[in-house]
Specification:
This protein has 601 residues and is an alpha/beta fold. 65% of the residues lie in helices and 10% in strands. The protein has helices spanning 16-24, 30-62, 70-123, 126-131, 134-176, 178-185, 188-225, 227-232, 236-289, 294-336, 396-403, 426-432, 447-452, 460-469, 473-478, 496-508, 526-540, 552-556, 575-581, 584-600, and strands at 357-365, 371-380, 385-390, 411-416, 419-420, 433-436, 445-446, 486-487, 514-518, 544-548, 560-565, 568-573. The strands form three sheets. Strands 6-9-10-3-11-12 form a six-stranded mixed sheet, sandwiched between helices. It has a four-stranded antiparallel sheet with strand order 2-1-4-5, covered by helices on one side. The radius of gyration is 36 Å and the shape is elongated. The structure holds adenosine-5'-triphosphate and magnesium ion.
């Protein structure tokens, strides 16, 4: 639970600058908004009319004291009834268009906002995603945006309607009978106190609901993704108990919310009944004394009944506004965080032929005070094939993370040619260097899509050509739909080896100048291993390659080996030379690669 605490920024009840910023999203739709408010005015005006029409009907035409003859009374009554219907129809139409216009505005604002957030997320540095769990970022794009939409559709605009209606009713009541109006307003203070208590209660329980829903979502996400681990280790019972605890907490939060309503609504009912009783008593007396017409009394009671609706609504709207404030605060905090890795203002053109790659005294840490790389210096000449080896956690993957600028080095420089990689556009850099990551990530789409990734400049023939070259075509053609075979989420349905071959094809299809490969640690069966190794050889042929090697056969194909130990370069040289030296590499070789030699060859 603590995990989600910082999601709940302590939003002030009303923050003007925040509100101004929320409203700024409506600027492009200003015309629509004005139209919507105009329609609202119309709606609330027309909602005021019916009780008054009732009063006219009673006082002028129905009342036994009417001075008109029967025919005139019928004619008058018919007119009022006609007007009554006309008012209803106009109010209906106005209300329809108002809701339509407002829905349009709200949905468009959400659309814009989602685009903006997504674009912003794409520009964020990878370190940001290390710090922010998926679930939290998803919430920004979905429910937070949704809540913000409510600010417009049922918040700001509807509050207008309520305020108009309330003011309108008060004016009409005073006009009908000032004294009786004052008596009606007697219950208002009690009403406001009730509304305030309700608001405070509901605010807390709404917040609890949100927090607990978030906790359940995070729990679910983890458990569904890791279902195989749960089942294999017989954790079903334990996870079920954990889930049931979270589920109970959510249940309780919902119940608390509902109970707050269950008290509030009846209290309002009682207060409004008290008011009506007062009106009946004093108003009835007024009619008997002849200071109030019968029709006015009826109209008065009808208005009084409508009076409480907007007051109830307003206390609810207040909560909507509150959560909208909190949501927008979170969204804006996300949007305002500048990407830490940005293109230089005057980017250099990237060389169009393979150039030297140089690490020049590079140091790096993911977290302050936990250095991962220290003083790394090496050069890879054009066309050279270099392997990086080392124990797990030595910092191998980190080196290629820095090279493709997923993170920026803390100290030192990384050069391509003579230029710091920070001087190139990230786009150019990523086209220049093809990186095959340790964990292959596949998108939900078909096989072909996972190779070209939607790049229109890569046609089907090219995809096939590369797949054939890289030994992937054989398994692809065995699939029922071949290249059009859909890949399940995260490629669950493909084997590890198949996924690796796909990732090779994906990298090669771009004809990169430099190839960076983080060999998958997971081993594959001997047949596939052979295919993968053959593919690798073809892959590296004639290309500058930096390979993080976990396999002996990969090491065999390289010119030079860099041995990384605890973030420093321990040894460097060709395979034979390093073995002879009898240092760290020969150790590693004994431990790690000797077995493979027996296994595969
Ligand atoms: N995103 C991250 N945030 C914080 N620490 C990290 C992050 N990624 C890696 N580390 C830490 O940095 C160190 C080096 O990790 P790295 O992934 O570079 O190791 P590696 O040499 O590639 O290991 P392996 O052979 O297992 O792939 C490890 O101690 C790891 O825990
Ligand atoms: Mg690694």
């Amino acid at each position: 639970m603590e995990y989600f605490q910082d999601d709940e920024l302590q939003a002030k009840s009303y923050d003007r600058t925040l509100m101004a910023r929320i409203l700024s999203y409506a600027k492009p739709y200003k015309g629509w908004l004005v139209l919507s408010v105009a329609l609202l005015l119309l709606v609330s005006l027309f909602q005021l009319a019916p009780p008054y029409l009732v009063k006219i009907a009673i006082d002028r035409y129905i009342s036994p004291e009417s001075e008109l003859d029967t025919a005139a009374r019928y004619a008058g009554l018919a007119k009022v009834v006609g007007l009554f219907f006309a008012v209803l129809v106009v109010a209906f139409l106005a209300s329809y268009f108002q809701i339509y216009v407002m829905a349009q505005v709200g949905q468009r604002i959400m659309f814009d906002l989602r685009m903006q957030i997504f674009r912003h997320l794409q520009s964020k540095e990878i370190a940001y995603f290390d710090r922010n769990p998926v679930g939290r970022l998803m919430t920004r794009l979905t429910s937070d945006v949704e809540v913000l939409n409510e600010t417009f559709t049922s918040g700001v605009v509807a509050i207008f309607l309520d305020v108009f209606t309330l003011a309108g009713i008060m004016i009409v009541l005073c006009y009908l009978s000032f004294k009786l109006a004052m008596i009606t307003f007697v219950v208002l203070p009690a009403l406001f106190v009730a509304a305030m208590i309700f608001r405070a209660k509901v605010r807390v329980s709404y917040r609890n609901v949100r927090k607990r829903v978030a906790a359940i979502n995070a729990f679910l996400q983890e458990n569904i993704t890791g279902m195989n681990v749960v089942q294999v280790f017989n954790r079903e019972g334990a996870q079920f108990t954990k889930f049931s605890r979270r589920n109970k907490r959510l249940y309780q939060a919902h119940i608390d919310t509902i109970m707050a309503y269950a008290v509030f609504y009846p209290v309002i009912e009682i207060l409004s009944s008290v008011a009506i009783a007062l009106i009946l008593w004093y108003g009835g007396g007024g009619v008997m004394k002849g200071v109030l017409t019968f029709g006015s009394l009826v109209a008065f009671i009808q208005y009084a009944q409508r009076f409480y609706r907007p007051i109830m609504d307003l206390s609810e709207k207040y909560n909507v506004l509150q959560s909208a404030m909190a949501s927008s605060e979170r969204i804006f905090a996300l949007l305002d965080s500048e990407p830490a890795i940005k293109d230089s203002v005057a980017p250099q053109a990237i060389p169009d032929s393979p150039a030297e790659v140089t690490f020049d005294r590079v140091s790096f840490s993911y977290n302050p005070d936990e250095p991962v790389l220290r003083d790394i210096t090496f050069t890879v000449r054009p066309g050279e094939k270099v392997a990086i080896v080392g124990f797990t956690g030595a910092g191998k993957t980190t080196i290629i993370n820095l090279l493709s600028r997923l993170y920026d080095a803390n100290e030192g420089r990384i050069l391509i040619g003579d230029t710091d990689i920070r001087e190139y556009r990230q786009r150019d850099l990523h086209r220049y260097i093809a990186t095959v990551l340790q964990d292959v990530f596949l998108f939900s789409g078909d096989i072909a899509y996972n190779i070209h990734l939607g790049d229109a400049s890569i046609d089907e023939d090219r995809v096939r050509e590369v797949s054939r070259y890289i030994n992937a075509e054989k398994f692809i053609e065995k699939l029922p739909a071949g290249y059009a075979e859909p890949v399940g989420e995260r490629g669950r349905t493909l084997s590890v080896g198949e996924r690796q071959l796909l990732s090779f094809a994906r990298a090669l299809v771009y004809e990169p100048k430099i190839l960076v490969l983080d060999e998958a640690t997971s081993s594959v069966d001997t047949d596939t291993e052979f295919l993968v190794q053959d593919a690798l050889k073809k892959f590296m042929a004639g290309r500058t390659s930096i390979v993080i090697a976990h396999r002996l056969s990969t090491i065999r194909h390289v010119d030079r080996i860099i041995v990384l130990h605890k973030g420093r370069i321990a040894e460097e040289g060709p395979h034979g030379e390093l073995l002879e030296r009898g240092g760290l590499y020969s150790n590693l070789y004994e431990l790690q690669y000797r077995d493979q030699e027996k296994k595969i060859y």
